[in-house]
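Section 5.1 Outputs to date
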Amino acid sequence: MRIAVLGLGFMGSTHLKAIKNIPGAELTAVVSDVPEKLTGDLSSIQGNLGGPGVKFDFADVRKYRDYRDALRDKDIEAVDICLPTHLHAPVALEALRAGKHVLVEKPIALTGAEADTLIAEARENDRILMAAQVLRFFPAYLPMIERVKYGVLGPVRSALFRRRCAAPTWSAWLTQPACSGGGVFDLLIHDVDMAVHLFGPPTAVSATGHEDLPKGIDVITAHLHYPNRDVVITGGWHHPKTYPFSMEFSVVCEGGTIDYSSLGRPTTLYRADGEEVLAQPEKDGYQAEIEYFIDCVAHRRQPRICPPEESALSVKLAVLLREARTRNGEIVPCSL
């Protein structure tokens, strides 16, 4: 499949690394309004997952300064949108209207209305639309998803998802709520989406926290209220530069607890009779999600692992949690 990557920041670089390893994926074009990046030198790129930047060989790749030129390129079958968040929905909409299949980095949009518009447009144009909610493909999370979503360990009684990092200093747009949605929205959309994937929408939510973006603080502790269980999503930005990135979960089921932390605890199942480190796929999650998108396009099959309707629901729920934080713990009905 001939694909163009729109945006050559941290996520664009990450997706390019993955595409190199996917049979059948042909990188046809790249888009950036920064001329230096179109040379293939992305060695200065930074992100909260760390790791050195990379230099790519773009000798045989079409290079565009304006994404609209890529959308007009009839050789391109699909676009992989890795632009700043406020551009996700409008560029995806133009791409769908141009007849392209669309993989768009998380979140799919900044508002539920924008996400719903994209879904309707994809249906109207018979195109594949998928948000890159990578946790659904992430090796450390897959053993938990398989056991929790399908009830292998019995009913879930409690779940905690936590994600923390320093406030970003590498991209100014991330610190502008109108562009990124803010730190809590941009970062914890992963965990909100995981809750939606596993449990669906809650009946109500409540949240506390604090936002002071000039100081690099944007934190939340949110409760998603379901019948017979409480799900907690917590974390955010903890001052600029030095605070380390981490992600973790702990899911308590009647038949055992599954726990993971990126800071050194592998995905482990704890039962009354002992513990077991759970096997997980070796394939990189970014590669797995892009492969899945390409397979959906090849077979004209709507994404079942990561349907855009759930991605839209995740955006709506994340917006509601951010609003609930301003009510300082008040329980807010959820009727998404």
